[in-house]
Amino acid sequence: MRALSYTVAPSAEAAVARFAAAQGSARYIAGGTNLYDLMKLGIEHPAHLIDVSRIDGMDAIETDGDILRFGGRALMTDVAYTPVVRDQYPVLSESLLKAASQQLRNMATVGGNLLQRTRCMYFRNGAGSTSMVGVYPCNKREPGSGCSAIGGLDRTHAVLGTSEACTAVAPGDWPVALMAMDATIEMLGPEGPRNLPIAEFYRLPGDTPHREFNLHPGELVTAITVRKTPAGRASTYHKIRDRESYAFALASAAVALEMDGATVRTARIALGGVATTPWRSRAAEAIVTGSPLTPELALRAGRAAFADARGGQHNAFKIELGARVIADALIIAAERRA
Amino acid sequence: MPTQAFSEIARVDARDKVLGRAQYGADVKKPGMLYAMLVPATIAKGKVSALDVAPAMETPGVVQVLGIGDFPALRAEISYRGQPTALVVAETVEAAIEGAEAVTAVYETAPYIPLMTSPGAQRVDAEGFNAGDVDRAFQNAATIVEGIFETPTQHHNAMELFGTVAEWTDGRLTVYEGCQNLDAVKAALMKAFELSLDQIAVKSEQVGGGFGQKSPPKMQTFLVAHAARLIRRPVKLVTPRGQLFHIANYRPRSVHTIRLAASAEGRLQAIIYDVVQENIPDGGFRSTGYHEDIARLYAIENFRATAGDIHIDRQMPRHTRGTHPFPAGFALESVIDEMAYKLGKDPVELRLEHEAKNDIIAGQPLSPHFLNDCLREGASRFGWSRRLPEPGSMRLADGTLVGLGVACGIFGASMSASEATLRVRADGTTRMISSGHEMGQGILTAIANVIIQGLDINPDRLEVLLGDTTLGPQLATVGERGTASCVPTAAKAVEALRARFAELAGANPPAGNLHQQLARLKRPYIEVKVSELAPGQDASAIEAYRTGGRAGTGPDYPGFTSMSYIAQFVEIHIDATTRRIRMPRAVSIADVGRVVSPRTAKSQMYGGVVWGFSTALREESEVDPRFAGYLNDDLADYVMAVNADIGEVDVGLIDKPDPRINSVGVKGMGELVMLGTAPAIANAIYHATGKRLRKLPIRINDVL
User: Which residues form a coiled coil (chain A) (predicted)?
Assistant: First the structure.
């Protein structure tokens, strides 16, 4: 048995202090839906687990003021079914409900979900030999060992934001919706609290694919905020996958619109399942902004989002599929305008 | 021949399953039991030149490590990735895992061929088959349809993993594990450990899905038994799914080239069929089996088949639910559909017009069957008549493409000789000792229903026993012959018991049910033991059954051949923009002879449609040729159908007895029910899009 300490943190401050004391061998844990999985796969080997799932108040869901504020340990299920979120921000609610399974959503937190690691099979199947029969090289898991996905079975891999070192796709749905809604991440670290726009939270793989988040050592996600906007209502999270539930996106789109009649006044478009990070497409937004939305224009916007996309051996279909998912999402969102 | 239909009873083990009381191999706990974990090879081919087990032995909790040389199955020569090189036994499963991960190996690698498309892969031809004059038929043909069809490598993925518990008591070995052929496991263990009959017991009370993967004896059974004997403590091994992908058998990838000829009058005349599959030398799944069942499906008199294997360096492929008729039927039923378009015929009509009366393989009549009833009933329930024939002609208001497809399936109705012992007691209980394995298919319920409907007994105090070698011989529950073999034997036992009772009670039997009558006659119980044979078998079949020999036969019996049939109808919707494929509706109608347990039979059919859907649109075992391992070796990445994928499924059974196969007229259905759905889906996708897809699984990228 590998020795492991487990402590329950009574407050965010206490959790951060404990993490600092562990000197790098600790991990925060809440629902454990990703971390335990990675530990069983032999990818994560923490010596200390600091449980943040019982921190008082960190599960609060506040919707009264000008912003929506979701505590870092609020459950995916609870946020998804919050009436204001469900009724006025379907993009947020749908991104949560189309993820994982009900059982997982009942355990997983919206803060932890931001940090979910890639489903790249070469990443996951490379470390342990008992649960999986792997030993596949992976730069993300073992920097410098090489990328097996490039030139391999890459059907589910990214076509945007890739590098020579990594093409692993960002797995999340919720972060894509947050990207469209310009969310802010609130963190607490050894140096104190810090806020970061979600657009600055994720890192492109470049030649350091093992560094995925702009999170300083010991920083804990304490909350996520979204500024209230009428764009929330005319919004959707459209997700296409290999089966109707319990699967990650082949391509997804988070779209939120402000409309003047049939004309798009502002558009927010973010993509999932196709890029190495949750992916905002200003190019697609520019195509539809100021014009009446037609299916043809929607598809043109979709194609614009993939202008710089690069397909691998088996995933080039995502470039066309992704464009069409955006097109459908634009139409669905527009139909929801008040 | 009983003509009466059976009424429906609840699944007899439903309550135990819902309450978690049903016992599977891995549920067994023994005092002092240790836990084991295998160590898989991480090369595809070559040799282990050094295996270092010392770090595993130093892992706290590890008790014993078996390595290469410690047991014959642990070989230095590696012939597939994942091949076990060691077994680590520990006080806890966690220590066993940690110990297994601490074992290191040094390998000498050899070149390998991971896929049938890999450079250097070569075809080895097998025996062919010919009936009629194929060349002449093609020369005279007015219409020819041809295509190359491919079905992928797929794993069974039963819910229950391979779980084995072995315990030695005074030189006597007891093994608990999920399997489909206890007698084969027993015989192999007796040979390996030089045991006599009274020194071995193998128990498989409940099996969490077999599907063919649990038919052959498993290497792990021997390793665990050997470890338990060495250490003198019970040992349990539950092999993780990632390893099972690499060491358990699987459905081989296969490629089918098929040509179908029709006359100017629209009669189907001839088929030329070639198949090649991935296999290992002397593999247990023969390429010569593909044409056998599909050649019997329609009245097509001229048929030439050729077959071959391409040898690969992976573990052995074997039987998987639907076996040969699944891939072969995908090819045949796709070209039949294409031919219907070419001939301007409705695909249901074309099939109805070619009802087979003869088995061209055995050269004899087919037993009367009801495929055409399946087609008519299915068409009626499905509303086939609303189908517009032109591809791409049906759409929903939102632009969704609609496709309606049909296809049939056929599977040999084989049987085995078997025995049963039935005892009715005055105390109100009844016990039936039967044979076989309950894998969820409902064999216990079917046997119980025969007894309940045949005898006036307390139905809730009836015990049906099987799945344990100490009860007697246990027939291999494979090739959908379990229920079809045990039910006629149960019916014979019921008749024998009634006769025995009539003898006992005389002309004026006392009042009450059988138990009460026995009490009044002051008899504690009456018991009968019977054996039943498949058509054409003699007493030697029972001898084979008792001694672990080949007791099975069919589907070609002396003078006739018996097959099970199914017709599948599906509605497919394809999103106008993203091309997402969905199946809102399916109708499945089967001819399996007399239906003995309507509820579990219907349950099998629902599961069969789901499996068929999953093979058509979801499942593929992905091998990266650079490593020869299965990359998607878990249930997240090996995509199987989930509940949200499945629309409304309407199932029906013709429920007419096969008059020749056995006294009850029952045929098997476990394999059959998954057939036909995949080609029906591919045909519906063609109907929706005009695109003929010949390679499974069909995914969104194929219809974009």
Answer: none
